[in-house]
Amino acid sequence: FDLSSTLGPTTRADEDFIRALQQQEAQGKLTGGLGLGIRTDAVLTESALLATSPVVERSPLARSFSFSRPGRPLSDTVKQLGQSEANKRGEVIEVVMETLPTPADSDDDLSIMAAPEPGLPPIKSGTWPTITSTKTGLSLTQVFYPQPDWKPFSMRWPYLLFIILLSMVLGGGQEVLYQTSARSPLVTFRTPSEIPTFQYFAFKFLPTLITVSYGVLWQLTNFEVRRLEAFYQLSKETGALAAESINVDYITDFSFLRPIRAFRCGHYAVAVSSIATLLANTVVPTLGAASIILSPDRDTRIRYPGNEKFILVHAVWSRLLTVTFLVIALLGCVLFFLLQRRRSGLLGDVKGIAGLASMATVSHILMDFKDMDVATHGDIHHKLKDHRYALRNSSLTPDDLNPPSKQEREKYTKNYLSENPHPLMLRAKGAVPFILGIVMFSALIPVFLFTPANVLTDRAPWVVTLLAVCIKLSWGALETDVRMMEPYYILWRRHAPPKTLTLDYTAMPFGWVALQGLLNRHWLVFFVGFGTVLTELLTVLVTSLATVEGRVFVDKVGAPDSSPSPANSSGMDDDINAGEETVASFWISFALADFVLLYMGVVALVVYVRRRRVFLPRQPNTIASVLAFIHQSKMLYNFVNTAKLSNAAMADRLAGLGKTYGLGWFQGRDGQSHCGVDEEELLSGYKFGYDYSRATKPWEETAVDWL
Q1: What transmembrane ranges does the database entry give (predicted)?
Q2: CA 193 – CA 573 distance, rounded (Å)
């Protein structure tokens, strides 16, 4: 619907036509194929539906476990068969009821049903019956939407079953390991050089490597559950309030507060997944490091370095670790039940701005974001808090026929989203303390290795692991912010390629982000993504160094190579033999740990320097925030009838148009100046605190209801 690209230079008649379209948009009427509503693909009568839908015979065992009440009413049967037929066809089906249900055989109160208000697009409201007047009297129809159930692999039953079984196996294996250690030491040695290479790796690095990898497996599931929760809430038959769906943020919120907020919103899958992931990423590595101990104690080993030493499993820490694994397995079972009993409502993955734009062109949802170009999250919440939305046939739509109750209106009076337009880890408030934390941790490693302070880490080596885990979690927050903001930063620089609209680094799993950043030549994304991999390695390295006496290795390096005195040589060897590290393993671990911390510090500093500037009016961390950026964009004409396209098909379609895109001030479909994402050429780039519309055309400004 781009007249300039289709017709060339416009005439007076074309200008009048465009002006008429702009006037319609200014009056709240969508144009160019936007907001046409969800159309019915097929119409069936009640008798035809009952005749064509086979009745599945159930065994007595299946009937005994059925929660359905005996003597199901005909209306419920039609509802079940209609939904099944819609799912099977993948089409919107309208069923014409031949018999009006009575209160005796239906739970639906027909007295509260009404047709849509005049002037609104023909959006059907779920499977609720609608009474319409015909020449022959009253006619009852029910509309059934297909309920697709696309889920990423990490949310499907094979993967969930795998991590549940893995949790149980690790818990049982930890108990077996403790019982074995209680009978006889796992490893007995006098000098570290006596330990075979494989056995040395097995007790020195493998436990931490397993616990860290286990945490990554849970991160994959938790990330997808959080990212797709809003779409599940929208796909429910009754839809969801804005505060529970399009205005909820589970991507950038604080990890330890996320379960509380999820429980408050009734998002139990997010709450359960977040708790399990926190346990797997913080408690499990810490307890794993504490459960493996070296006996006898440090003073005895130094006094008698030639005596036998033993690798044992600590009773208390081991039992706590076993219980933690079992608790996580139980949480995994709950998550398995929650995810398998519900449908996602998605045909495929929703990626980037293009994914949301294609879902917003069917209904009149865009009109809810009028005058919200530069609105804050608080403004958006205030305006939309009493609105309900739904996901129907891969399209986002307001649910105007199902208003919120008084209790729901009073539930979400406050908004918890940050009013700052820049993410925390890209601001001085978050970046500077994080960089200082990396520097302090880098200084701490030589302190507990080469000074008498290592007595503390010898008694509580898990403290070092816990600090490394905190560094890892903070780096994860930095990576999340960089992932989320990168497409918008590219758009802010203007004339971005079409693939930027389908680019979504937040939808990519662990490790894959670094590779995609490298292929796309988004170097900052690559370095940050690679740093995430290194943070897992850091946890393994510092755990292995926690109980080492580093001074003896310094003396060994500083000793002259030529003609060492037998006494001195024997003494230094005895000091080294008092521990569990060889000279080579110690210096390699120490050098790698220092390199990882140096890498993290440099990359974090570069990220702050390069991304500290505010380039958006608000953070794009909710569906509502993104829709407010594009609600008046002319590029939306190119997304009409694309709701069911895959991400690859969408990318090909946009590439074929040959347009570029940017973030800034542009002339919207209503002819007025707006701030957001649109096709080039824009009127002006975006500068924080500068309102282009007020500076150039103040007479266009109208009263805004939410101010």
Answers
A1: 159-178, 198-217, 268-296, 316-339, 431-453, 523-546, 586-609
A2: 11
